[in-house]
Amino acid sequence: MVKKNFRIGLTAHDELDVMIVKEKGDITRFTLNYRTLIGSRWHDIFRIDSAHGFLHEHRFWKGPESRRLGSEKPLNNIFTECKNVIVYNFQKYRDYYKKARK
Amino acid sequence: MKRLNKKELEKKAKIIDGIVNGLLNNTLDIPNNAVIYEPEVLLEIFTKKRLELVQYIKNFKPKSVTKLAEMTGRKKQAVNRDLKFLQKHELITLEKKGRFAIPKLEQRIMLLNVGELYAVDMPKSALVSNRQATKIKAQVFVDGTSVNEKTTGH
Q1: How far off is chain A from B127, nearest CA to CA, in Å?
Q2: Are residues B82 and B49 in contact, defined by beta-carbon separation less than 8 angstroms?
Q3: What are the residues whose beta carbons fall under 8 Å from the beta carbon of B138, sequence distance 6 or more?
Q4: Count of beta carbons in the 10 Å neighbourhood of residue A84
Q5: ipTM surpasses 0.90
Q6: What is the pTM for the complete model shown?
Q7: Could you report the per-residue pLDDT of B77-110, keeping only the tens digit for each?
């Protein structure tokens, strides 16, 4: 079992934190956390993770509560889908978050 | 703030796929807690002057911002501004010690596919060894130590 943490700069003000735990070439646990720099502080905007044994997401512009997601697919596929959701939508999510703060 | 178009987003998604697939297939190994920037993002964060600051911090471990400003021949205010920027991006820390703030490398930085980034010229008097390259193709730091050799070829 190997755990890897890394972060990817989506832009100079947006980052995606990635944590994966892999075993024999398969993801057994992951967290994807998108955050943005507002002023001098980083704010968590959107997170999907498989901790606590089930897949759930946090949409921080709506509040700190998580929403449980159901999926029967292998975690490798789920990871790719979740990663795409974030990469293709992070700009929209950032807008939602900024709007919700006003 | 500039918005990225679909093509640019696709490129980012592919890069992440490449990294994760590489990790899963054991064809890529990256240091834990690595920070990965694409060239466009990288050039926004690491201007030539900021990259130079990182190099000076790594190689010469200045004991204060004033010392670093002296080493680089820049105004303290300008150096301070750049250090604050790098601190905001969690790439360095400014450790308070009495009246001084000691700049330290905070993060593991992995620069992918950078190509010839910048020529960083250092005064000969500042060099403590011949390790400082004048052309940087890709610079990778792990805990403040260059691991370029390790990652070459990945």
Answers
A1: 31
A2: yes
A3: B111, B112, B113, B114, B117, B148, B151
A4: 16
A5: no
A6: 0.77
A7: 999 999 999 999 888 899 998 888 999 986 655 5
